[in-house]
TrEMBL record:
Superkingdom, taxonomy of origin: Bacteria
HAMAP family per record: PyrG (MF_01227)
Residues binding CTP, per UniProt: 13, 148-150, 188-193, 224
Gene Ontology molecular functions: ATP binding; CTP synthase activity; identical protein binding; metal ion binding
Protein name: CTP synthase
Pathway it works in: Pyrimidine metabolism; CTP biosynthesis via de novo pathway; CTP from UDP: step 2/2
Note: CTPSs have evolved a hybrid strategy for distinguishing between UTP and CTP. The overlapping regions of the product feedback inhibitory and substrate sites recognize a common feature in both compounds, the triphosphate moiety. To differentiate isosteric substrate and product pyrimidine rings, an additional pocket far from the expected kinase/ligase catalytic site, specifically recognizes the cytosine and ribose portions of the product inhibitor.
Lineage: Bacteria, Pseudomonadati, Spirochaetota, Spirochaetia, Spirochaetales
Activity-regulation annotation: Allosterically activated by GTP, when glutamine is the substrate; GTP has no effect on the reaction when ammonia is the substrate. The allosteric effector GTP functions by stabilizing the protein conformation that binds the tetrahedral intermediate(s) formed during glutamine hydrolysis. Inhibited by the product CTP, via allosteric rather than competitive inhibition.
Amino acid sequence: MTKYIFITGGVVSGLGKGIAAASLGLILKSRGLKVVNQKFDPYLNIDPGTMNPIQHGEVFVTDDGAETDLDLGHYERFTDATLSQSSNTTAGRVYLSVLNNEREGKYHGGTVQVIPNVTEEIKRRMLLSTQETGADVIITEIGGTAGDIESLPFIECIRELKYELGEENCCYIHLTLVPFMKKANEIKTKPTQHSVKELQQLGIQPNILMLRTEIEIPEATKEKLALFCNVDTDCVIQNLNAKSIYEVPLNMEKEGLGNAVCKILGITGRETHLEKWAEMVHVFENPKHHVKIALVGKYVELHDAYLSVVESLIHAGIANESEVEIDWVDSEKITDDASAKEKLAGADGIIVPGGFGSRGIEGMILTAKYARTNKVPYMGICLGMQILVIEYARNVLGWTDANSTEINPDTTHPVIDLMPDQNGKILGGTLRLGKFECAVTPGTLTEKAYGSTTIWERHRHRYEFNNKYRDELKKAGLIIAGVNPERDLVEVCEVPDHPWMVAGQFHPEFKSRPDKAGPLFRDFITASLKNKI
Ligand code: GLN
């Protein structure tokens, strides 16, 4: 029988519910259980694909092309799972199904209501992963905060599911904030008590309280919370601010999270094994080297907009026993060669990640020029590859107005252009999404990095390298290091006579893991360390 864990949040948002869910996934996986994490978001967008990254953070992409919440990235990185379309559901997607059913007459003339029609659809989706994966444990994170109007149907569903699936198969975890009042030198439990009351009113009695805190919570306080919230004392788990997110599973296991969950779900005879993970965290926290990477982009005011890129740089640092310091550079601030030099001179390596729209593009092109002419290691991701190609076309071939038609539809040299099957009219879900094969050219830096001539990486873009200009760019030296065999699309470009200037049309950041850094990130950091010496 599959076991179900539901994680809700209370008091405030942004407590790291995603990290907590991912950490629990890792703990249970290390006990030999097959674990799947999933997230239910109460907002009305069908998926986060059309949301502004500055507002919502990065859009994480799965192998099968789902555009999802960034918490799925945490799940994959912690549990090394490959998640799918069914791993992230929004209220918008639920309502869309219900309304389509209504139009198709599937409710046979009945009145369509939140309860039971919307809740049935949510519950159906909550159980989909069980059917698809046959997991031992499904961890479901409910987005938002308990008491939000929009999350009510989701809370009602997890209440009903406990009734339907059996008490012994369900565990509710509630994550709250225990604030520390500096002046009074006191930690406060009242917000947690109120939040639990809120849940109780909705029919949910949490089994485990997870308390986000900046100082150690005394035993007496845990006992008090256990008493007031009807929870066993060993089920009050402190979630102390950690040095890094990768420490969180270690800390929470020390607090007894694995045992508490297994006790509630009747899972016996299993021990947590986080030794390898602990070794990785040790390497991460005791680096031998230091490297400074300029991340040049247009969404730099919200670092979460580049979350997986940042994590991948950390993984690449671990693989190189190096601390990676990120210098966040707003590409709009680079307006000529002089400002490029001023902003980038201190960097050992430069990365230009993905992005959409025309703002800040010229600054990125100047960045690629700086990296190419000063032989500074450069890694381009998606838009970062398109930028590399535009810069090469402009400054090596002399096509001064070369551009992507996304930026300048009237350019005389559209080196990056729409594919004929992209009409660009419907924005949601119409990008080239998910994993595609790439045949890697032997003898390239890309082949060296992957140690293979066939790779699969995930994509999220609309525009492509324009094959009309491929021969001329190649003649001028540009190395085509990877091509999608099915459609002959250029996937990776490298610049010759340069220590390491490599860019892919795909997003290698989605498959990087803390103990298995994405190969391009790893070699980019190696090259940047060499550049420093
Ligand atoms: N805007 C570009 C495109 O749609 C690049 C996308 C990206 O960087 N993810 O092709």
